[in-house]
């Protein structure tokens, strides 16, 4: 299976719904909301799945994309997709493993845009929100977007909610410091 991103570029995905790529409508909405802030940004893609959000960020000029994904098969697809779209002046790094454990490896780094799309039924929301805050991963003027089920109420955190959107079976909550 493949999907299309910015510039009509085709990306590979894994068969089935194991990595559940962010649907085009939601992906487009995120990049419209963050329009004008992607060029030269530092992007963090948590539970990267097919890598479509990171690939889209690279296509739109992100300077650095870092992704975390647990599935070895998904990581192979992400690497291919990001190599395909990255320009020579862009860098990317993919960390394989549990998102909570891998986040600690990013201590000392900050990101302008963080996108978190875990399996909706997972118990990752609280620990990831806490770690992003504790490790100071969000840059001072950055934003952190979390994709989740509309029925799920995200926990309170040290971040401020700046907007919430709903797109069918997908909700997005955007945070700032």
UniProtKB/TrEMBL annotation:
InterPro entries, per database record: DNA_methylase_N6_adenine_CS, RNA_MeTrfase_RsmD, SAM-dependent_MTases_sf
GO molecular function, a single term: methyltransferase activity
Coiled coil: none
GO biological process, one term: rRNA methylation
Entry annotated with the keyword Methyltransferase: yes
Database matches in SUPFAM superfamilies: S-adenosyl-L-methionine-dependent methyltransferases
Keywords: Methyltransferase, Transferase
Name by which UniProt lists this protein: Putative methyltransferase
């Amino acid at each position: 299976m493949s999907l299309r991103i910015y510039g009509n570029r085709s990306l590979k995905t894994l068969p089935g719904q194991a990595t559940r790529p962010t649907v085009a409508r939601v992906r487009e909405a995120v990049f419209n909301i963050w329009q004008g802030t992607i060029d030269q940004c530092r992007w963090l893609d948590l539970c990267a799945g097919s890598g479509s959000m990171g690939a889209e960020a690279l296509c739109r000029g992100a300077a650095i994309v870092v992704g975390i994904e647990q599935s070895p098969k998904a990581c192979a697809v992400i690497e291919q997709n990001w190599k395909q779209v990255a320009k020579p002046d862009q860098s990317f790094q993919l960390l394989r493993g549990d998102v909570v454990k891998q986040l600690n490896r990013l201590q000392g780094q900050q990101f302008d845009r963080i996108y978190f799309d875990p399996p909706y039924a997972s118990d990752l929301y609280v620990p990831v929100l806490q770690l992003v805050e504790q490790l100071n991963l969000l840059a001072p003027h950055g934003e952190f977007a979390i994709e989740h089920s509309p029925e799920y109420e995200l926990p309170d955190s040290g971040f401020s909610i700046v907007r919430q959107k709903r797109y069918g079976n997908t909700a997005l909550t955007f945070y700032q410091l």
